[in-house]
TrEMBL record:
It comes from the Eukaryota. It comes from Paramecium octaurelia. This is PARP catalytic domain-containing protein. PANTHER family: UBIQUITIN-LIKE DOMAIN-CONTAINING PROTEIN. InterPro entries: Poly(ADP-ribose)pol_cat_dom. GO terms for molecular function: NAD+ poly-ADP-ribosyltransferase activity. Residues 1-77 form the PARP catalytic domain.
Length: 115
């Protein structure tokens, strides 16, 4: 799963793991939990399985005449994934608590004319 972020958040994520942010657009959407119960998506950390979607949330930084953004690649516990119908249509997933997330790779995405 991919999580794009702003430059100012990178150090905090590395030190303290991913934390829920202020933008909780789907928090009041309904979804099913791991037991099949109807629940609200709630607040949490947003992910996507599509790299290009995650780049929409990045801040690119110039380095040697190129532009790069940081994207965190993470493993998540599948039992704790929340995804409403609208989230599924838009390619988003949510994990409510950071203890169910394990960032394991930092990607540098190079911006080009195509994205």
């Amino acid at each position: 799963m991919y999580h794009g972020t702003q430059q100012k958040s990178i150090c905090s994520i590395v030190k303290k793991n991913l934390q829920p942010g202020f933008a909780q657009y789907y928090a009041n959407d309904e979804c099913r939990d791991q037991f099949g119960n109807q629940v609200y998506v709630g607040q949490g950390i947003y992910f996507t399985d599509k790299l290009l979607i995650s780049t929409q949330y990045c801040q690119y930084t110039p380095i040697c005449n190129k532009q790069f953004a940081v994207i965190f690649m993470s493993r998540v516990s599948p039992n704790y994934i929340r995804q409403s119908k609208q989230m599924k249509e838009n390619g988003y997933f949510l994990i409510n608590k950071s203890l169910h997330i394990r960032p394991y790779r930092i990607l540098l995405h190079e911006k080009n004319e195509m994205n």
